[in-house]
Every structure is written in structure tokens, then in C-alpha cells.
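REQUEST FORM: STRUCTURE PREDICTION
Request ID: SP-0412
Submitted by: Lab K.M.
Chain count: 1
Length (residues): 296
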Amino acid sequence: MVDCVLYLEGDRSSSGGLNHLRMLRSAKNRFGSSEEVGVYEMHQRYGKLVPVSDPSSLFLSNRFDTFDSDGCAITVVLEGMRAITVEVQALVAPSSIGGKSFSGRRTVDGISTARLLLILAVLQKRCGVSFSRFDVFINVVGGIRLSNGSRQGSESDVATAVALVSSLTGIAVRADTCFVGEVGLLGELRQVSSLEKRVNEARRMGFSRIVTPDLGRRSRGRRVREKGNYVDGIEWVKCENLLDAISAGLVSRLPLTKSGKWLKPKTKTALSTGREDNNDENAGFIIVDDEDYDKI
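STATUS: Completed
RESULT:
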């Protein structure tokens, strides 16, 4: 009989970042809970593993938290019973290869590739934000993998979507805000487990706002604006759909149409910088899809 099965995991393929971190998981534990996770760091001087008492601070140690930046969003994930804040970075750049129907490269590190493709499809279908002919890169800072076994990193869907739209439009993400929630195929935000524990961890790490799914009853046939209330010193912004969550997390709201989709800028300058060119007599906002892009 096997009493305990332990796995010591870590990213040994990366030459930078926090690849010296190791996570100790138990697949079977006769003497305790199998949901506990230990985080250890390889001490460079003594050559041994030492426990990390505060993984959240370690993962955010190199973060530029003093100013808003585009393509960077913070989420709170659960590793076992422990809530940890991690940074999700996105880079969206025009693809230099491929024809009109080319979708661009999709490179991920830390989440499931299938999860990224789902988020991109929801953004295009439900929010009117297309990433066709753009190369998309996603990285979870620190070498932590949110996709593990049956997990696909769905709890970080909102943070991933916010980072993607921010990098595409050039609109910065608020540095005081973190994001939690799973994205459904209809563009709605779905609940994740231990939400209050994640909110408490965000407050402990110094964030003043957190964007989560709304616990209330959903309204059918109409968009519901985000609702915020303060809980123990942190503003808890509850959203029902992805587009509202994105607008709540950016420094400036996305211009929307009456149907609730993003108004893409007419000029390519505004598309790349997020700012409208006032010198262009045709400057404004219209909805464009992939077929209309070449006509602009």
C-alpha cells in the first residue's frame, strides 16, 4: 500500500525568471489533505530548497506597480488551498507573414493553448475585438503553470482577456486592480471557487480594486453595467459580462456601440496606440471586421 505520492514540480527549461521555484504537490496523502501545496525556492548560496512563506510577494517582486502599463494584468489563483497573486502578460503585434486569412501565431507559456483560443474567439464573437493577422503572446510571470492536469487556467480568463485587449488597443491596465473569473462561451463571467479568499489575498497584497463575476441574478436581453462596493477597504467590482470587466479594468473605457461591441478606430494609428489622430479628417470610430481592415 502507498501512503503518500508527492510530485516536485518546476520549470527547468526556462533560463530566466523564477525557474528556481519548485512546488510540492501530493496526489495521494493518507496522513493529510491532498490539496495542500508547498512552494520552495532553490537557495543559490547553500544549494538547498527553502520554503517560501509568501509566494504572492515573490511572484510580484519584479512588477512595475507604481504606474499603469498596457498588456499586464494581475489575477489571483488557487494552488491547493493557498491563494496566490500572479502576473499575466500579453503582447499583440501585427503579423509580418501570411495572407488575408492568416490568423497569426499563438504562443503561450503558463496557460492552456486551448484556453487562449477560446478567449480570442469570445472576444471576437461577443465583443467585436478581432485578433486575426496579429501575433499573440501570453506569459505567466514566474514560470508558474496555471494549466495543470485537468486544470486549464480558466480562473485567469478575465486577466488574460484584459491583458490582450490592453496590448491591442494600447490602453493601459489599472495598476491598482486585479481580476478573477472564468469566461463563458456567451461572453458571460462564470464563478470560481473560494472567491472571498481571493479577495482577501488581493487586499493583503495592496490592491484597492478587484473585478470578479457578479454573484447576483443575471439579466436577460440587456447589458448590465458593473457594480462596485467596498468590502474591508477594497472596491469589489462585480461584472456580468466580459466587455464590462475589460472596461472596468482599463484606465479609460472602451468606446462601445449600442449593441455593446467595441468601436474600433478608423485610423491605423489609433489602432496601434489606442489614441485617436486628431489631424485625420476621417478620425472617428467604426466597427470593422477582418475583411474591412484592408479597406481602411
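NOTES: Confidence is low (pLDDT under 50) at residues 218-226, 267-296.
Reviewed by: T.R.
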